[in-house]
Structure of 4-hydroxy-tetrahydrodipicolinate reductase:
Amino acid sequence: MRIALFGYGKMGKMIEKIASERGHDIVARIDVDTPKIDFSNMDVAIDFSMPDAAFANISNCFEHGIPVISGTTGWLKDFDKAVTLCREKEGAFIYASNFSLGVNIFFELNAYLAKMMKNLDQYDVAMEEIHHTQKLDAPSGTAITLAEGIIKNSNYDTWKLGQGDGKEIGITSKRIESVPGTHTVAYNSAVDSIEIKHTAHNRQGFALGAVTAAEWIVGKKGVFTMKDVLNLG
Ligand SMILES: NC(=O)C1=CN([C@@H]2O[C@H](COP(=O)(O)OP(=O)(O)OC[C@H]3O[C@@H](n4cnc5c(N)ncnc54)[C@H](OP(=O)(O)O)[C@@H]3O)[C@@H](O)[C@H]2O)C=CC1
Ligand SMILES: O=C(O)C1=N[C@H](C(=O)O)C[C@H](O)C1
């Protein structure tokens, strides 16, 4: 498969390594100053760039009929526009705030736990995410997906950065040198706490998930999620 990388930073380089090990060709490494992109020479695009760049990259690929795997976080204000354009152009699209198998299992666990806790008013939920100091967005995309999973399955109706209040899920974002990504969801009462936690040990899981999604999407049309790719739930 011929893969174009939009964004060739920490994730772009890890994806190149995993994709090459799986026998794929990296045909383009696109950065902010790439003068001209040859869309005729790629089967799929994988975008791990920057919040301000993602939507333009994704739109450009749809305009040229290229399926897109999108891992960049912090651009979701434009997500609905991307979905509409994908459908208009009969393209193919997967966005995931987190491509790792472990986090996608964690998303399911989070939804299940939220359902169990729904009517137990003595517990308040709180979330913490920890990432490396170069991360541009807060809270993390994964924390937002976890909050959405709780909102869908509980009486909480929104989230906010910092301390939550009543029906708000409070999310604490910490930035610590070189942490790949740690997420904790805690239900706290006066007598105990229940916590679920996912810890990424490195970036390989994210990259493998993105390459797996790219392998899966070629030849398909539509807007999909990692649940479709991984056959979860
Ligand atoms: N969904 C998931 O599973 C995961 C998502 N992420 C997300 O992926 C994104 C990238 O992460 P990471 O690789 O760590 O970040 P990096 O900062 O290491 O890499 C981002 C790269 O994008 C480049 N870039 C800037 N503008 C453009 C543009 N217009 N087009 C293409 N590339 C551009 C940057 O170049 P330059 O430095 O020259 O500006 C840089 O090389 C983040 O949003 C992060 O949150 C990260 C891990 C997992
Ligand atoms: O920026 C990162 O590094 C990561 N970003 C994603 C997010 O915002 O959730 C996924 C992962 O946690 C690493």
Notes: The CA atoms of residues 148 and 158 lie 8 Å apart. The chain has two domains: 2-99+204-230, 101-199. Residues 2-99+204-230 form a domain with the Rossmann fold fold (CATH 3.40.50.720). Residues 101-117 form the longest helix (17 residues).
